[in-house]
Each structure stands twice: as C-alpha cells, then as structure tokens.
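quick one, 89 residues, struct below
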Amino acid sequence: MIRPNKDRLLVKKFKPAEKTATGLYLPTQSQTPDNWAVVVAIGDGDLSDRFSIGLKVLLSKWAGDELEVDGERHLIVKQEEVLAAEVEE
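---
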C-alpha cells in the first residue's frame, strides 16, 4: 500500500448508483456525480482530525494525480481539492 506525503490523501473513485435499494433504475441526471471517492490512505500531515479511512469525499472536477495500486486506479489529492465529506446523521 502507498502512504501519501503530508497533506495528501489516497482515494479511490467509485461509480454512481444506477438503481435504488428497492431496485428502481435512476435516470442519468439523478445519479450521484462521478467525482465522489473513498479515502484509502491518509498522509502524515495534520489530517487525522478531518479525514479517516473509508470516508466518502467529494472532489473538485480536475483533482488529483492518477496512479495504479494493486491493479486498480487511484488518485492522490491535496486536502484543498476535497470539497466536502459525507456526514452520518
């Protein structure tokens, strides 16, 4: 596994949901944007209070540098490229 430096995160994008939990297919306009990702690794900077492994984050459109880890595409992004994080209520 790779550990990013300082204020960077290693994230993996995921595909938007194509259907609901009840099996209804969503039209393309209703699907989640494809710039959502899951945090896979956290750099050694001061990020641990804001980010955790497994957290879903919304990235800016052109965020990050692509790389391949274990045969899967990932991104290394700066903390500033994260626009929002999913919060459980």
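Strands lie at 8-13, 36-42, 56-59, 65-69, 72-78, 82-85.
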